Every structure is written in structure tokens, then in C-alpha cells.
Amino acid sequence: MRITYLATAALVAFAFGCNKSPEGGTPNTKASFKLSLPTAKDVKQGNTESYDASIERGSDFKKDVKLSVEGKPEKLTVKLSKDAIKAGDGDTKFTITVTPDKDAPIGKHDIKIVGTPDGGGTPTSQSFSVTVTENK
After folding, report:
1. Shortest CA distance to 114 belongs to which of 124, 104, 102?
2. Which of 6, 38, 55, 114 has minimal Cβ neighbours within 10 Å of its Cβ?
3. How far is 80 from 51, CA to CA, in rounded Å?
């Protein structure tokens, strides 16, 4: 019975919120970081939706992380609430705001977020999906 609960909890965690990037900074050390992005989301044509995201720092990662959007889908406006997460910031959260045009293509679109350590190190990136639906 306990194994069933653990397996179910692991499946739920995987399906709802485990969307982390490979390590950036100095991978496979405590001087690394990851992007933590939302899982797939829906947004109606012409509407605006905001999604929470963050970076997770290794205990020895002490650099600023520049944030950017790469390969933005056509007819979708994607904005980040911060251009960078500073090394001394206790708050590593940022918001991703997505606004499809009123005539944006219906369907699934991938949005790629890139985190680049300031002053050198390995950048990392991760994508999440938004599904544009018709605004009836």
C-alpha cells in the first residue's frame, strides 16, 4: 500500500511541476543553478496569462543570472518580469507573461527561457508549452 502512495506521489510531482533545466554555471557542482519553469499551460487568443518561474542556486553559485526568451513563437508576446536575478537576491522568482495576438495560431507553442551566468560559466535553457485556444 505504501509503495502505491509513493508511486502516485512521484507521478503527480512529475506531471505537475517538474520542469527543470539542466544545470548551468559549473554543472555537477554546488556552483551551479537550474531554471524551474511552469508545466504546460493554456491561454486564450488576445488574453494575457502570467506564470511563476524561478532559479534554484547551488550553495556555492554566487553569480548574477541574466534571463532571456529565445525563439519566441510567432504572434505571441512573451515578457519576463526581471532581466536578471542578482547574486545577492534572496528572491529568485520571476514571472513569465504570455499574450497571444487575437489571431495567434491555435495549438501548442514552446517558449524557451535561457539563463546565462554573468562573468562566465555554462548557460542553461528550458522550454515550457502554452496551448493557445480560441477566445469565443
Report:
1. 124
2. 6
3. 10
The pLDDT of residue 45 is above 80: yes
Return the pLDDT at 23.
Answer: 66
Residues 6+ apart with CB under 8 A from 98: 41, 43, 48, 49, 50, 51, 76, 77, 78, 111, 130
Strand partners, 51: 96
Buried b (16+ CB within 10 A) or exposed e, 101-116: eeebeeeebebbbbbb
* pLDDT tens-place string over residues 68-84: 999 889 999 999 999 99
* DSSP H or E segment with residue 85: strand 84-85
Mean pLDDT over the full length of the chain:
84
Longest dimension (CA), the chain: 51
Amino acid 4 reads: T
Residue ranges of alpha helices (H) inside the chain are 2-15
